[in-house]
Design brief:
44% of the residues lie in helices and 12% in strands. The chain starts with a strand and ends with a helix. Strands 2-1-3 form a three-stranded antiparallel β-sheet, with helices on both faces. Strands 4-6-5 form a three-stranded antiparallel β-sheet. The protein has two domains: 87 residues, GIY-YIG endonuclease, CATH 3.40.1440.10; 130 residues, no CATH class. The protein is built from nine helices and six strands, in the order ββααβαααβααββαα. The chain is globular and about 70 Å long. Helix 4 packs across helix 9 and helix 6 packs across helix 7.
Amino acid sequence: MGVYRIRNTLNNRSYIAAIIDIKARFNRHRMSLKTNNESVKALHTEWLEYGEDAFEFEILVRLTPLEKPDYDPTEDLKTLEALWLEKLQPYEPTDYHPAKKNRVGPFIRGFRKMERAAIISLLRRVFKGGILQRLPKKRQDAEVFLALSLVRLDPASFYEESEINVHLSAFLDIIASQEGSSDHITLRRYLVDFGFLRRSTDGAVYLISSERIDEVLPRNARDIDPKALFREVEMERLRRRRERSN
């Protein structure tokens, strides 16, 4: 399960979606395109014009399911799809998705940077739901969380993947389950996909993008400690429980 893309290799136009069974969805697209039943009309038009060999079917990211018997990946898939749509902006007239009204530039660009108080309020609201199982759903909230995960690292230094993994695991300690969609590997992938981490072609060396962090976090918010806020929220939760039991 995950997010996939159908891309016209001749003009780079794309269609993006998330689904549980990617292989079955690929087969369904191919069948519908060949039998003139494809619902994505712009994609179907160019399939007829350029032919099947011009199109590439690829998996952009796989979703690792939580190891829970009642786990439903629907919301995680919706979040992943929204993130990739915001990143790549595959809308008409340059791509296959219908034009999105009043859309802004790539991902967070075009949004007003959140102030320190708003970021603290956001984290407290997120932590009220307990230990994190996934990134916040709203893209701006997710980017704040991603930026905070890297502010302790030196943007002038090179890091090996193992060092990044250790750092992200420590960042997630206490506040996230570190299973499935909330583990350090998934977090690292998001950081790379959305420009907060730059990676060498062989994947051995990483650099922090201070420019991306600057786009999201004001200077006076760099010292916010998510773990401290999580502990505060948990203490408040325990206090309310005690008050109700008395």
